[in-house]
Amino acid sequence: MKVAFISGTSIVNSTLFSAWPVGTIATPYGTVTYKTRGDHALINRHGYGVPLPPHAINYRANIAGLAALGYRDVVSLNSVGSLKKELPPGTFVSCSDYVGLQQGPATFFDTELKGGAPGIANNLLPQLVAELAP
After folding, report:
1. pTM score
2. What is the DSSP string of 46-94?
């Protein structure tokens, strides 16, 4: 199963991914640094070195880089707090919706009018659980 992951700084810097080789790929939107192992790739959305704040993340370069590497399935891993006691730290959840607070371009179609809304494809979740479960 060829799948890429986009994560935050705490996940990508964990010991789980420390042995994954690092590569770079140039895209029309900028250079992307990523880690790979087998059929999997990992991008730190905040970059490597000095972390970028959320408003400075180059989302288009990240997606273009993964596409150029041949990835069509992408899972975003996020570590945030919970407002529910039933969801203590360490709980894994799969979102069914999102809020897009991006600034700047939210599309690859800058010179033509195209519409649409990105979706969340939870159909990957059972496959990931089966493959990654101990």
Report:
1. 0.75
2. T-SSSPPPGGG--HHHHHHHHHHTT---EEE------S-TTS-TT----
Task: Tell me how far apart the alpha carbons of residues 100 and 96 are, in angstroms, rounded to a whole number.
Answer: 13
Question: What are the strands of the beta sheet with 40-44, ordered from one edge?
Answer: 22-27, 30-37, 40-44, 3-7, 74-76
Beta-sheet pairing, 40-44 with 30-37: antiparallel
Torsion of CA 121, 60, 23, 70, to 10 degrees: 50
Q: Tell me the C-alpha distance between 51 and 56, whole Å.
A: 10
Residues listed for the chain: 134
Q: What is the pLDDT of residue 101?
A: 63
pLDDT mean over 28-45: 94
Decide if 43 contacts 65 (C-beta within 8 A).
Answer: yes
